Amino acid sequence: MTTAASASNPTRIVETHPIDKVLRADRFPHILCPACGIGSIIHCYVQAIIESGIPLNQHVCVSGIGCSGRAAGYINVDSYHTTHGRAVPFALGIAVYRPDLHVTVISGDGDLTSIGGNHLIHAARRNVNLTVICINNFNYGMTGGQAGPTTPLSAKSSTTPFGSWERPFNLPHLAHAVGASFVARWTVLHIRQLKEAVLRGIHKEGFAFIEVLSPCPTGFGRPNDIGDGLEEMRRYRRRCHVDDNAYLPEIDIDLTNDESPIVVGNFVDVDRPPFHPALGEPASTTAKPDPDRADARTQSRESISNGR
Amino acid sequence: MAASVPMTNGVTQVRIAGFGGQGVILTGMLLGKAASLYDGKEAVFTQSYGPEARGGASSADVVISSDPVDYPLVTNPDILVALFQEAYVRFRPLLREGGMLIVDDELVHPDAGETGMHAIPATRMAEALGRRIVANVVVFGYLVGKTGVISRDAAIKAIESTVKPKTYQLNLDAFSAGYERARGDRVS
Amino acid sequence: MGADAKVAGSTRLMVGEHFMLGDHACAEGALAAGLDFFAGYPITPSTEICERLAHRLPQVGGRFVQMEDELGSIAAILGASAAGARSLTATSGPGFSLMMENIGLAVMMEIPCVIVDVMRGSPSTGLPTLVGQGDVFQARWGSHGDYSIVAFSPSSPQECFDLTIRAFNVADQLRIPVFLLMDETIGHMTERVVIPPAAQIPRTPRKRPTHAPGEKLFLPFKADSDLIPPMAHAGEGYNVHFTGLTHDERGYPALNAQAHEELVMRLSQKVSAHASEVTLVEEVNLEDAEVVVVAFGCTARSARRAVNLARQRGIKAGLLRVITLWPFPEEQVRRLAGSGRVKRFIVPEINLGQVCREVERLTSLPVDRINRAGGAMISPQSIVEVIAA
Asked: Which residues of chain A neighbour B161 with C-beta distances below 8 Å?
């Protein structure tokens, strides 16, 4: 909506942004820190929703816990802010029951790949029709900057005060290895590429995984002497190297080594049958096995597993 | 009909014990189903799921009564069907005093002092019918003919509604072989 | 749009008399209730529910998913239910423990679902194939914080069927997770189950928005006088927001004490306000009973026999069979305790005294407990001995 221009001043004052209808403007101001990258990622998703041509009410956003998990709450589609790590299986339930809907998961690296790692790999393996936007800020930001499975080697955090000695995940390589149909990595610097990738994810029949590197100046930047969010963005600009054909096992991120490139791109785009739990044939067309007839499975079982 | 159905206080406890693959679970299922759905009786069927089900041993328990069955487990069977030696050794002491023991006498070698036992070469009879796998149904027929715990009609209806249609005739033949042997073979 | 669009009624409902396993009867009850979505992870002794639905559910237009674990199973059924599905998962103690996290989410988001726990000997891996009744308090208090749920306890395969249907109806009515606390004995017992025609199967619908999306602002957590808010599903255009955080009527996070007080109180009170509608017991020989046995699940079968045996001995014994474990039938126990006729209670259960605690807090009369850690049923004789003592 715009205000009517006054007769004396032809300037039209725009009171709303074109993406406002896709945002829950009544929830602003948001909780995110200055220079946090999550807002840009929300923008990319919202822009992708608009450009998808798919009505708003056919988009669903699901998130887990953490700063990234709050994303769902700012987007004006049916949105579910679930428990830590469980966004993907919750989204699976929606996507399987309502295959006509476009379900996107936005959550953080810790949520999706640590506590939710098992769900992530199995949803990818099944090729569930989901778009997963994994916001990787290299740490648990909301709780004050603890290390996670993406924290780079030697990076400091409140739980790695002497520097992390664990090898971090290479998320595109992981997603590809476990069967995702679309795999990309971008940064919040790559706004157009990211929006395009999300759009491709939305239209992809199957599991789309998009890693987005995002500054967390509060939790990760400060202890690692990166400076402010802008400085982290400058590093992205300096070091990012777009290569859609990159050899995924070798695209680990070493944020602390200024010489090593950060490889970004749309790495994987393959067509595999998406997950559709089998629907039985209509009763009239097939002779179905009777569940009460004796067979090896139901009646004649002579011993069963001793459980786990 | 058999002279009298083995029971205690109006309840008949049946244990059918064998080893995996002998079909004792199906036999228990048929017995309980026949009583419950086709004979106007109440019945509960359970099977051993516990660690004792390891090692190939398998047993099916059925409690049959004209009144609703409250306690569902077999404690002291009125009828024990033992289809291999270990089952006989293990469960014979539980058989109620005066209860009925049925064994496949080619698979079970009873103690010297065992009396009143009913023996049927079920496995051999099943082989004669062409399929060793229906030995359990031969035993079922024998059990029904010998004890009268359920009616023949109910038993056949249970078979008909339980086994795959293409194996119905074979199972019916097996049942009849066991049943007729029981009726013509009153004392062992 | 839902998965039930192509359901053929006749195959969904196996009308007639069956000689059926308790676990299978539970699965058939879910189908009769209109189950749309099952997600689960096989675990003894609930596996037969999962297997039965793997076989049956896809044939009637529903969706069956075997998940990677129980954490995912319950998350998936909540997602499907949020999209409008009647959703079920089935598990046993170890899996039930894993589900506690999202049981809290179901409570907080007010997403209806049914969770079957076929109890086995516990704690931990315990006795996978043998009976236990030790999850009674876990069902009530297992997830963190204060909340209320409903839990039913069947004593027969027929009740597995009947109570599963009721569980779905109560879940949809109150917008809560509802538990079916079966035990291994009941789940693995085969008995006659009568499946009635569709017209005799009640269905309580979810309360739904009364205006079209966009007509005016929909407040997804604004409750009516019955304390239950109407539910809009994913994909309907209401642009709802659900969160596990404390939230306001709009569904938005409201992280303050007042909002928390209002929400948590309402979530608890909406169950207690409807307790009388969902609290079921069976009373056996209680009219003149001086000794009352309180029992549930498979133990109620032993108790029934025990009461009959005691009566034969001239002892005025009766059975209060608890069908609804939660909310606990406080009124019924208090009434018996205050009758002036009842002299004592006996609570046999295959745990170390969970229901017994409930009875004890409701009466000053003596309460004798009969406890077994698990692995076997409590025999009627051991109950008779305590009745006669």
From this structure: 292
Tell me whether residue A167 is exposed, middle or buried, using C-beta atoms within 10 angstroms of its C-beta: 0 to 12, 13 to 18, 19 or more: exposed
Centre a 10 Å sphere on the Cβ of residue A112 and count the other Cβ atoms it contains.
32
What does the pLDDT read at residue B188?
43
Q: Any bridge partners for residue C242, and if so which?
A: A80
HSE-CB at A164 with a 13 A cutoff on CA atoms is: 26
Q: How confident is the model at residue B22 (pLDDT cuts 50, 70, 90)?
A: confident
What does the DSSP 8-state code read for residue A91? H
- pLDDT tens for C20-49 read 999 999 999 999 999 999 999 999 999 999
Q: What is the pLDDT of residues A240-269, one digit of tens each?
A: 999 999 999 999 998 778 889 999 999 999
SS3 of residue A277 by DSSP: coil
Q: Which residue of A has its CA nearest to C82?
A: A94
Please state which architecture CATH assigns to domain B11-181. 3-Layer(aba) Sandwich (3.40)
CA distance B49 to chain C (A): 6
Contacts of C10 in chain A (CB under 8 A): 283
pLDDT tens string C242-296: 999 999 999 999 999 999 999 999 999 999 999 999 999 999 999 999 999 999 9
pLDDT at A1: 42
CA-nearest residue of chain A to C102?
A: A83
Put simply, whether B160 touches A (Cβ < 8 Å) is no
Half-sphere exposure of A308 (CA within 13 A, CB side): 11
CB A307 within 8 A of CB C129: yes
For domain C3-200, the question of CATH label 3.40.50.970 is answered with yes
Tens digit of each residue's pLDDT (9 = 90 or more) over C140-165: 999 999 999 999 999 999 999 999 99
* Rounded distance between C-alpha atoms, residue A278 and residue C265, angstroms: 42
CATH superfamily of the domain spanning A23-269: Thiamin diphosphate (ThDP)-binding fold, Pyr/PP domains (3.40.50.970)
Q: Report the phi/psi class of residue C239: left, alpha or beta, with left for phi > 0 and alpha for psi in -120 to 50.
A: left
Q: Is C203 helix (H, G, I), strand (E, B) or coil?
A: coil
Whether residues A119 and C72 touch (CB distance < 8 A) is answered with yes
pLDDT band at B50 (very low <50, low <70, confident <90, very high): low
- CB contact at 8 A, A105 and A79: no
Closest CA to A190 of A115, A139, A154, A241: A241
